[in-house]
Each structure stands twice: as C-alpha cells, then as structure tokens.
Amino acid sequence: MGSLEFKDLFTHDGTVYGDWRDEFHKNGCAVVKNVISPERAAYYRQKQIEWLQSFGRGFDPNDESTWTQEHLPVNFKGSMYFAYSSTHEKFVWEARTEQGVIDVFSKLWGTDELLVSFDGMNIALPRQKDLKWSPWPHTDQSPERLGMQCVQGLLNYAPNGDKDGGLILMKGSSKLFNEFFQETRKQADHEDKPPEEENFKDLFIFSEDDVRWFKDHGCEQVKINMAPGDLVLWDSRTMHHACLPEGDQIRHVQYICMTPKKFAKAEDVEMKVQLFKDWQGTTHWPHCNLRVQGPPLRDGKLDPQNRDRPLEPPEMTNRLLQLAGVKAY
Length: 329
Ligand SMILES: [Fe+2]
Prior knowledge:
Clavaminate synthase-like protein; 8 helices; 15 strands; single chain; Phytyl_CoA_dOase-like; binds fe (ii) ion; 22% helix
C-alpha cells in the first residue's frame, strides 16, 4: 500500500494548553467534562425517548418487554438512528449548536469557521432480546486516507459507568494508523463489512490479530466512562467500537463532529448544502465523504413509516446555516 496519499490536515505545533487538548494531542482522544449542563442532558434524553415514541409502535422506556425492534424505528445495531431525517430534528440541531459544543471544536482546530456532520444518535437499550450483535473494532477513516484528517465526537446524555453500554477506544492507535497500514491489511470478514464495490466507504473493520497488533505496540483498550454533559473526542484513525449496556441504564448519545470549513472542497460544500435541503444525513465526516444514506428497510422493504422531513424542523439560525455549509462565514 505504498502509493497511498498521506496528508495531515492539522499539525499540532507542540503548544501545551493546560487542558484536555494536551491529552488529545498525546493520545489522539480525550474526554471534555461538562460541555453542557446535566439539565440540558436530561432534556435531550427526554427528546430522544419522545422521538422513539413518535412512531407509535408501542415503545415504552419503562416497560422492558417493548425493547425490541418491532417497537422501534429501524436502526443500525439496535441503537444507532440515521434515517427518518432524524439527523435534522430540532433537538439534534440544538445539541450541535450548544455553545459549549462549538467551543470545544473551535479550541481544537483553532478556528470557529466550522462545518458539522449531519450525524446520528445512539439510544442503546439494555437486554434487547432480538439483537444480533458482535463487537466490531473499526475506524471510520479509510486506510486510503492517511494522516490527521478528522476528529469524531459524541455528546453523552446519561450516566455512563463501567456497566453501561458505551464507547471503547484503543487509546493511542491513531498514532500507529499509518504504520499499521504500511503493510497490506485485509478487513475482517465481519457481518457489517461494507460491500466490496463501496471501496471508498470510510470504514475499516479490524480482526482479532489486528487488535493484538495494536496492543503489542503499546496501545490500551479502554471503556470511556462519562457523566451526562461530557463529550469525548477521538482522532478518526483511532480504533473504536461500542459495548452493550449490562446495567439498567439506557445509553443516550449524540454523535457530533466538526471540522474547519477550509478542509472542504467547493463541490463537497455544494453537496452538503443539497443534503441539508433534502433533510438527508451524512457520515461522521463534516467536510467530505458525503453521500446519501439509504432509506430505512424493515425486513428488506422500505419502512412505510419513513419520513422525508424531521418531525420538528430546526430553527434556521445564522450559526446553524453556517455549520451546515449553507451560509458563508
Ligand atoms: Fe465508528
């Protein structure tokens, strides 16, 4: 794989900040505490539950017998929601435009001229009986993109301790990404492996041997525990996956990534604007890797409950339109 393009879109100049940025630049990941208040986190938990209930399929957060797919809108891996224009619901945009959230990404990149991903949310219910699931350590950056190019984030709304479902990061793996892919590597043959024809889908699923390779090279696999209102950031070259909740707490998360607008090509901004106008979601990438996400399929057929607009559209503030790529900075 010697011919791959290597490009760092951001280089840390060695500045010591005295905050979470030092940890981020050292290990490629960091938790930022209290980005929003516990009250705001509770509000977002409630809005997520209401959104699940808006489909009228009998989902009840207090009745575990309803925690099955037939009572839920179509999701990915039992908990991730990208369809139904949910990525543009008012409460989702409210989270993206929380000043505390914008401030984190502005500090990280050294600019507040940012684009945000139209990314999904994760509502993970413990003990889902009909969930077929296996861990899938992966990166959302393809080995065809080498270098520091994107930072992912998730805003956490519910208490998240050892027993609660959550994010597992291979701490330090982003620093070894380029070295790892100097050799030809084959994606693990996982059930969620993307089809071969989608060869530029930014997803690489690692095998158990690969996981061992990173551990042998000094990385540590850690479960990220967080309080409501905390945000975790990781360099997109970091191996990660989720674990299922083992306690009683429902996991509530919003994926949020922001990158400098200057990273985006004009044609990508144009496409992003079109996706926004069509209420379509994106991948985790704010500035590239944009493509229409498929419609929700239930038993292989288009879900008749599909929506082509959010239930509650967001308020079109200046900041929102800038983050969406619609308005210039
Ligand atoms: Fe991921």
